[in-house]
Amino acid sequence: MYKILVLLALFASAACQDDKPEVLVEDGVLVLTASNFDTLIEEVEFVLVEFYAPWCGHCKSLAPEYSKAAKQLAEEGSNIKLAKVDATVETELGSKYGVRGYPTLKFFKAGTPLEYTGGRTQDTIVSWLKKKSGPPAITLTNKEEVDILLKEKVAVIGFFSDVESDSAAAFTKAAGLNDEILFGMCSDASLMKEYDIEEEGVHTIKDFDEKRADLTEGLSVESITAFIKATTVPLLTEFAPETAQKLFSGKDVPFFFLAMAKTSDEYEAGAEAVRAVAKKHAGRVIAVYLNTEDKSAAQVLQYLDLKEGDYPAYRLLNLDKNLKYKPETSELSVEKIGEFVSGFLDGGAKPFLKTQEIPEDWDAKPVKVLTGKNFKEVALDDSKHVFVEFYAPWCGHCKKLAPIWDEIAEKYEGVENVVIAKVDSTQNELEEVSVKGFPTLKMFPANSGGKMDSYSGDRSLEDLTKFLAKYAPLPEEGASTPPDTPEDAGKEEQKREEL
User: Fold this and answer.
1) Catalytic residue positions?
2) Residues sharing a CB contact under 8 Å with residue 429, sequence separation 6 or more, in sequence order
3) For tag attachment on the chain, is the N or C end more exposed, with fewer CB atoms within 10 Å?
4) CA 422 to mean position of chain CA atoms
């Protein structure tokens, strides 16, 4: 890594000789501190800032890609700058911008911070920044502009002789809804002909699969958005840590996972079968390949409950609901894979839920132990208010909550219509509850028909007790008959406030 001390040109001019903060440049990336941060953000229109920790492994993995992105933009003469802040030193800056983990990336547009939602590779960083700093679709007027756009791994061109048409307007709106892909618009027929584009419409050009896809009829925001979703993602994407964030973030379609060794004799045929099925259901499912010989895929394989001896195998995942689906066979044929995917998309598949056996002493202590096998019977018992902690044994926050959870359970042990319980969510998966962080606290009120109320307050004994009292006040607190519904609880609370 080289270090060059430079005075940014933006910080000086012939007409102004005032002292300006100095900015260090490391491998193409600006180094910001409390002394120069505000000045840079105010004077440079577009700045992506990485808040990092020197010891963070994810930060170390990002560093070379981040540097390459900064250099590419500089070589292209872009007005977008990449910067970084050591948040372990510049703690006030980290606190000001809500940094709670590393790396945290913020995009400053005319001084206003926005969340960075792109990937962590050179090309995904550059594409996201160009999209966020420019119009929804770049106007293409010459071959050089088209060639620059087509250097992207995937780009979308709207070709319309009338840029004021309804179709062109729909394309521009659809382009504005996408943060990941670069879009261009052209009205020059002779220019488009050089790229074998002769029909007006929307054209996806990419360096994978069939290389190009065209949409020339029924152009609306909805149809163009669906077309973009279906044609800009490879039919089968190999999992890699550096692309995981982009792959899994903000996706509203299920994932199909193929898990097998790349050196397997069955790999080529299996991959082709998956691509064929993925093409049939393009836009409705995203297919991902997990190389079981690659250690980087180990965590995903574990999450899918796949282990040595299970391969080759395939699974479906509804990430939004955290539900997994397992086929009856592992046969790598278009027919069997197609039946599995179609069954899921048609709504006929049942999720595969991991569960523990019910412990013999599950109800021996104040905190009741629930598993996938007794959850419905206990938590959805309409005669009781059931307060449940969904935890992970390794979670530090869960360990801190444990004695408090025990204490609140002891306080309510004599209240017949209240149950305090816990579920090890690393070993028990539930169709009724999607757990995305630990600990997750849910109240299942009596007479609510299975509805639940999420708790997001402070995890102190006092605050948890106040929350629970809305449903079932302790007898010593003056409630002779605990309310049966959330509505009744609200009325009781209002009465107490009036008194």
Assistant:
1) 56, 59, 395, 398
2) 322, 323, 324, 351, 353, 354, 355, 372
3) C
4) 27
Tokens of 87: 């948040």
Round to whole Å and give the CA distance between 118 and 50.
13
Residue at token pair 């809804």: 177
> Using omega within 30 degrees of 0 as the cis cutoff, is the peptide bond preceding 103 cis?
yes
Is a pLDDT exceeding 70 seen at residue 336?
Answer: yes
Task: Look up residue 3 and give its two tokens.
Answer: 């270090």
**Alpha helix (H) ranges present in 375-419?**
375-379, 396-411
Q: Is residue 191 within 8 Å of 167, Cβ to Cβ?
A: no
Which residues 6+ apart lie within 8 Å of 98 measured at CB?
104
pTM here is 0.64
Q: Residue 228: how many CB atoms within 10 A of its CB? A: 25
Pair 119, 245: CB distance under 8 Å: yes
Task: Determine what percent of the chain is predicted with pLDDT higher than 90.
Answer: 72
Q: Name the nearest CA neighbour of 389 among 430, 441, 426, 425.
A: 441
Region of residue 349 (phi > 0: left; psi between -120 and 50: alpha; otherwise: beta): beta
- Neighbouring CB atoms inside 10 A of 95's CB total 11
What is the Cα–Cα distance from 371 to 377, expressed in whole angstroms? 10
Instruction: With beta carbons less than 8 A apart as the criterion, state whether 144 and 191 touch.
Output: no
Between CA 64 and CA 461 the distance in angstroms is: 46
Dump pLDDT digits (tens) for 368-400. 999 999 999 999 999 999 999 999 999 999 999
Q: Starting at the earlier edge strand, list the strands of the sheet with 23-26.
A: 3-6, 23-26, 29-31, 80-86, 46-52, 104-109, 112-115
Say if residue 289 is exposed, middle or buried (CB neighbours under 10 Å; 0-12, 13-18, 19+). Answer: buried
Rounded alpha-carbon distances, angstroms, from residue 215 to 171, 195, 199, 225, 478: 11, 16, 9, 11, 68
What is the Cα–Cα distance from 433 to 227, expressed in whole angstroms?
32
In three-state secondary structure terms, 300 is helix
For residue 348, the Cα-to-chain-centroid distance in whole angstroms is 27
Calculate the average pLDDT of the chain: 88
Name the burial class of residue 165, with classes exposed (0-12), middle (13-18) and buried (19+) by CB atoms within 10 angstroms of its CB: middle
Beta carbons of 273 and 332 less than 8 angstroms apart: yes
- Other CB atoms within a 10 A radius of the CB of residue 260 amount to 22
Distance CA 63, CA 66 (A): 5
Task: Tell me the chain's radius of gyration from C-alpha atoms.
Answer: 28
φ/ψ of 171, rounded to 5, equals -60, -45
CA dihedral of residues 213, 214, 219, 220 (deg, nearest 10): 10
Pair 133, 56: CB distance under 8 Å: no
